[in-house]
Amino acid sequence: MASSLTKDSVTPGTPGSGKTFFGHPRGLATLFMTEMWERFSYYGMRALLPLYLVAPGGLGLSAGTATAIYSVYLSLVYLLTMPGGWFGDRVWGPRKTVAVAGGIIMLGHLTLALPSSGTFYAGLGLVAIGSGLLKANISTMVGQLYQGPDDPRRDGGFTVFYMGINLGAFAAPLIIGTIGENVDWHLGFALAALGMGLGVAQFLLGSRHLDAQSSVVPKPLSDQEKASTLRKAALWAGIAVVAYAVVGFTGNYTLNWVLVPLTLLGVIVPVMVIARIKRDKDLDRAEQSKMSAYIWFFVAAAIFWMIYDQGGSTLSIFADSSAENSVFGWDFPVSWYQSVNPVLIMALAPVFAWIWLALNRRGKEPSTIVKFASGLMLVGVSFFLFLAPLSIAEGGHKAAALWLVAIYFTQTVGELLLSPVGLSVTTKMAPAKYASQMMGVWFLAVTAGDATTGLLSIAGVDLNKTGIVAMEATLAVVAGVAVWMYRNKVKSLMGDVR
């Protein structure tokens, strides 16, 4: 997307005075490009990851192990958004945290590019840490460019910003995926590092256009809190080092010694966080009621993301082994399937926005609960569709590429129904005490869903079998129907939120 930098009559001294970016503060261009390059590196690596893990020229792992690693990696990225937000709020401030995070991500991709399985897992860890730090803080800086929540440009600014996400996600598999699959896996990972490097460079060059508030640490740690935090971190790090040293020296170490604890964390932490908020006696009756309603949305979202994120693992591995990856005789890399979702998002999001406005004017716009239930049912339908190519493959034939495109299309429509609604309802239903933390809680639903997929894979469940796919599809549809059937109860618990 080409930038549009023009003079704008903004009051001097306000964020974005002087030149603008599509009528928005110029700092939005910096954040747009940073997010675009970060998503380029992230989605490019993600498109290659499961294919590299199972490839004979890669790590040569089983499909189950590859899915477990992929799922644990995704769950970690979203789990780490909460400590990432904490770092921005209490230690470095958003601007410094994003700059450091970009450097960590770039280092992670460079580590992935090294031809060694040992360094490969270290690289995955670095990318997950950097992504958690960056994801939690860059949106905060977008908000700081505007004059509070009532600035009329604010919603449009976030829309432009999210276009950067989808542009990066669309281009990455086409470029990084092609190089990685057809030329060299490690060169593909190195390209991801280059993309993040470009993002960091332009962020540092353009950071002068950001609001001064982005360099402020909102709630800096006191000396006592710093000492306490360091002691706790050192204690847990020491326990981990001792435990893994014992396992290693006794010759019992396997990959599951890492995967199982991380996967369990991805399930247990979301439950603990929700339970802690729900038990908080500082919340009044209305806030407690809203949290009870929010649990419905949270569980439903976890089921949705459990299936949806298999588009990059289960579906990708299936396509690699059992699909005819060609259109009209023209072959394309398997990783290109990962570009279907972002291009559909860019095409369909404006259509959905127009439909909701048109229905709202007639008083017929579906409620939040109905949209949410519909999105959940659609992701279930996508896996019922998956049964067709699975059956074709079991008959010894290659499934047509259009089957997979149909699955991604159905999932994307479900995402457009559920994801924006989930983000919106999270901010609306957040108790005042947890207003700044609730977006992290929403991301924990993704963590819980991906961690569940990881647990199934570690337990030896073959997620490319018709019985398992049918079970997951049924679970999502039944959950969607349950949310719809109990919509009046959930609506009453939501109080004044609509």
UniProtKB/TrEMBL annotation:
It is a multi-pass membrane protein. It is found in: Cell membrane; Membrane. Pfam families: PTR2. The chain crosses the membrane at residues 43-62, 68-86, 98-114, 120-138, 159-179, 185-205, 257-277, 289-308, 336-357, 369-388, 400-418, 439-461, 467-486. Keywords: Cell membrane, Membrane, Transmembrane, Transmembrane helix, Transport. Signal peptide: none annotated. Its main location: membrane. It comes from the Bacteria. PANTHER family: PROTON-DEPENDENT OLIGOPEPTIDE FAMILY TRANSPORT PROTEIN, RESISTANCE PROTEIN MDTM, PUTATIVE-RELATED-RELATED. Belongs to the major facilitator superfamily. Proton-dependent oligopeptide transporter (POT/PTR) (TC 2.A.17) family. This is Oligopeptide:H+ symporter. It comes from Streptomyces marokkonensis. The lineage of its organism: Bacteria, Bacillati, Actinomycetota, Actinomycetes, Kitasatosporales.
